[in-house]
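Q: Given only this backbone (152 positions), what sequence would you predict?
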């Protein structure tokens, strides 16, 4: 058995030194939380590759004192389009966005209560998704976490 060779490189977002595996992937950067990947380095404009934000937006946000892992609304929607099942946290409540195979609609799921809202397609979701009577796109700045849909 060959001993696995570990390599240290700079985090693509914060430039902290991190350890990567032979595929170029890292665990969450201890400094900024970014999950390094060769693929996001190759496609810096594409959200939803290991992280919800695109690499370029993660760098922009981090350089402005913000989070490297919290996605803006556009990146979140694009991550949904690219990956399929994503979640966000708003007012300490987790919500999933996923495709409902049975109804052939986009489902906005309150993960705590299991309450569901259905939208015709992602465009309908972008324009009309509402939580607590307010359009989601208009309260996205209050979102505190974005991620791929985790086990509930
Ligand atoms: Zn980092």
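A: Predicted residues:
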């Amino acid at each position: 058995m060959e001993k696995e060779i570990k390599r240290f490189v700079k985090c693509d977002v914060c430039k902290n030194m991190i350890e990567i595996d032979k595929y170029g992937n890292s665990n969450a950067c201890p400094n900024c939380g970014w999950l390094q990947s060769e693929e996001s380095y190759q496609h810096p404009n594409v959200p939803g590759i290991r992280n919800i934000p695109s690499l370029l937006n993660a760098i922009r946000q981090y350089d402005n004192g913000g989070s490297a892992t919290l996605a803006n609304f556009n990146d979140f929607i694009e991550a949904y389009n690219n990956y399929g099942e994503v979640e966000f946290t708003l007012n300490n409540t987790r919500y999933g966005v996923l495709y409902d195979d049975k109804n052939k609609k986009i489902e906005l799921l309150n993960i705590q209560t299991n309450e569901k809202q259905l939208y015709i397609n992602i465009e309908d979701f972008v324009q009309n998704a509402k939580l607590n009577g307010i359009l989601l796109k208009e309260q996205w700045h209050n979102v505190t976490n974005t991620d791929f849909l985790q086990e509930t």
